[in-house]
Fold this protein.
Amino acid sequence: MRADWLALLCVALLGACRTEAVMRGRKLHTCSQLRSRRDATRTEEGIHKSGSPILKRSPDITKGSVPKSEHLLRIDDHDFTMRPGFGGPAIPVGVDVQVESLDTISEVDMDFTMTLYLRHYWKDERLSYPGKTNQSMTFDSRLLKKIWVPDMFFVHSKRSFIHDTTMDNVMLRVYPDGKVLYSVRVTVTAMCNMDLSHFPLDTQTCSLEIESYAYTDDDLMLYWKKGNDSLKTDDKISLSQFLIQEFHTTTKLAFYSSTGWYNRLYITFTLRRHIFFFLLQTYFPATLMVMLSWVSFWIDRRAVPARVPLGITTVLTMSTIITGVNASMPRVSYIKAVDIYLWVSFVFVFLSVLEYAAVNYLSTLQERKERKFRERLPCTCGMSHAGHVMMSSSYSEMDTMTTGHYGMSEVNGDKREHMLVRLAMDKEQGIHGRAGKTRSYSSLWIDTHAIDKYSRVIFPGAYTLFNIIYWSIYS
């Protein structure tokens, strides 16, 4: 009996110990959960109190299903090889331009280079998409190959390209109602037929022409979106040789016999050339050469080594100036304003050389005739005193003025000998009475110094008159 009771008591004690252990484990688990919740609550309260930006992570929306632009614009549902509204009225395409720079103007090639932003506006209902707000979508050049865009080109262009640094400078913007904005940055070199008849005092008018290549005015109607305000220019645009007077826009129709009528847009600008560069490089040197050629009129006619090189130097310098100007100009078939000025200046320089040639030739001819008359006369050694008396009574005023150019020392030498020869011939004519058969020596006397004296007045006066007429016509 005792043994049974002891076994029951042991079993009861073991059961009580196990129940107590289970209850303790449950309490420990419950305490740890409460502690973790309390710590998390304290952490959140501390974050809110300290103003930390760390918040609860938002879900990643990029991992959601976002429709592609092709699906949103329904590109695969339409045939974009045809223009919008095919079969109906012509689609209007507005254009505006912002000129970024006017790079070069070339007279030799007859062209100009311009960089501009060309923008097109039209409506294509096939590209409309549902949208709660009027928020547009912007795309780059990769979408252009999948939709319809106007096929614009520059008429009379020689070279053009779309900028592609760092990517193609192309922008496409689509609105929910189907309106489209297409913008491109392009540099174009186009022809400019210049009239250089007034060069370098000229004003040139050039134009850049925009037209659709394939669509006539029955399919596509080009127009300036805001009239003359559709053309904007950068305030910093400037050229070294030209002053930009104005930019303006026009619209005309162009006809091709094989295809029909097309709308054509014109960007016209007027340029006036700066004259200061040409005044400094062409006109002033030419004028100085002409004035330098006049110096020979004040040099003694017997100073051949002084007058001849001076004339040749001025002639060669004028030839160099003319050659340099023509080398930088196109070979046009008409005369330019600068050609008139340079060639007239060249003629004045050349005439100054001919003037000395005439003076030298007449002086030589006169000396030969005097030598012949001197050989026919007897010795004039004893006629010095008589020569002085006769000179004072019969020598003309012109001869007295002529002798003043070389001083009285010449009268005592060759000049006095010339006077005596003349007086002797007059005496001989009086004795024999052959006035009709023998030419008077006074008629053979040519005052070569008077040619230089008149040239000092005629040449500057004529050149001044030419400048007055020239600048009044071309300026």
The chain has a mean pLDDT of 78. The chain has ten helices and twelve strands. The radius of gyration is 52 Å.
